[in-house]
């Protein structure tokens, strides 16, 4: 499915067209091998790569291509053993700015139209705190959803909540025996953080009793049986637990500005009715086999450190189903019922083996075919200030809501330390946008697979590759546009004006937006978009330094530069939006 995400720039088109006139058909279809270059706008070494097959010396082939490019908007020189140095004509580049500005999608295509992607992300566990580990899946998943949707994909968001399992027997039994515990939340709506912590302490108290009292363990076990056999009272408490947790999660999602809603919740319990059937199918096909009373799937290529087989346990010895059986049923459901072409699991890298086994089993069962792509999209761990796994001073997990508070406070200080004329509610909104944006950007700008240190001071810094820096770059260019006279903004671009090198650099970057967005959609790596936006913001700064905008030498130049500012502002805003980050007009 991802082949449709390949990008083909105007320069690649030009070189391809020249290839078609010089080379035999089968060779002219090859990649024109165009890359950015220090010596010109682009360089292609296609002549070197195809010379052998074409039976021509590379330099001669390069010269033939150069001649064919002669009449186009791309001029070329040949250097070294046969490199083609490519320079795009000024008028062509201004024309591209004009075309992109006239399109509200900024020239981005819809390559994923007609395809469906399921994105499994966030997936916190009911009655537990959403902790810093859930930040990454939520933020990365949200960005991927936005990018895939923007390029035309039909995206189905799935929040695979941990809402089923034996721990609910323990919880519900504890609640039953301790009517004095107030876990439902009072009349005054508590904040998301507080409400989940109430549930979290409930969970911990239940766990303690469970670990200390064998008689309670037995009562909790009976409660699991009651839950699974559909006992109404037990189910009622379970539903309430799910509801209270989900509401608190939703408050956090809203605060984070992620697209998840309650409609996207499809927790583990959703697949409960299919587990028997799914496992029976695996047994019948001989894929799941008895091993010491449990039902397991074994894999030829998977062994532990001592060479022992590592099984996927689909049914435990006691007859209970667990995480694996649920994921098998879920995958089958997503293929058959949701009719997904691509299924993404944005889940911690430590679950790689689990997904490898689940996908492999589904392939053997014939559910997962070559027409469907199932991908584990893993990510690294968020570390605390010391570079060790994130914990509170007392060794507990750090609450996500506290981290957001800390980042917002950091943003407040950063705003206080710089000149601006914002006050009241507008200022407060900017501070919130900056703080939340800082957390998201810090997460998204780190290469997905890497661990990173959660450092609030660094995140809200106005320097470097940070969310605040990016938002600031955007607000600054909007401010310039706000100061421009109306007639200057409305004046059409004069494509005959020669380009300043800083203008050229900025336009070439703007032209690369489509390719970057497609790349993120293909490789599922948001940090590439962050890197692109950072480069764009830097090119914008260089441009300001070299080219006066409001004080440009002539009205035509001013109009052209304002158009360039406007396209950059729109690109930064759209880029930030695809990351799920707000771009205030003033900061
Ligand atoms: N609830 C799980 C956790 O917190 C993540 C679930 C991920 N999705 C899935 N289909 N297994 O670790």
Describe the fold and architecture.
This protein has 587 residues and is an alpha/beta fold. Among the domains are: 2-88, Gyrase A, domain 2 (2-Layer Sandwich); 165-257, no CATH class. The protein is 53% helix and 9% strand. The protein has helices at residues 10-22, 25-28, 46-54, 58-69, 90-101, 132-150, 167-177, 192-212, 214-228, 232-256, 275-284, 323-336, 352-364, 400-416, 424-445, 456-459, 467-483, 486-490, 501-511, 513-523, 527-546, 555-579, and strands spanning 34-36, 42-44, 74-79, 83-88, 116-120, 154-158, 289-291, 294-297, 312-315, 342-346, 373-377, 382-383, 452-453. A four-stranded antiparallel beta sheet has the order 1-2-4-3. A four-stranded parallel beta sheet has the order 6-5-10-11, sandwiched between helices. Strand 5, helix 6 (132-150) and strand 6 (154-158) form a beta-alpha-beta unit. Helix 8 (192-212) packs across helix 9 (214-228). The longest helix is centred in the middle third of the chain and has 25 residues, at 232-256. The chain is globular, with a radius of gyration of 28 Å. The protein binds arginine (ARG).
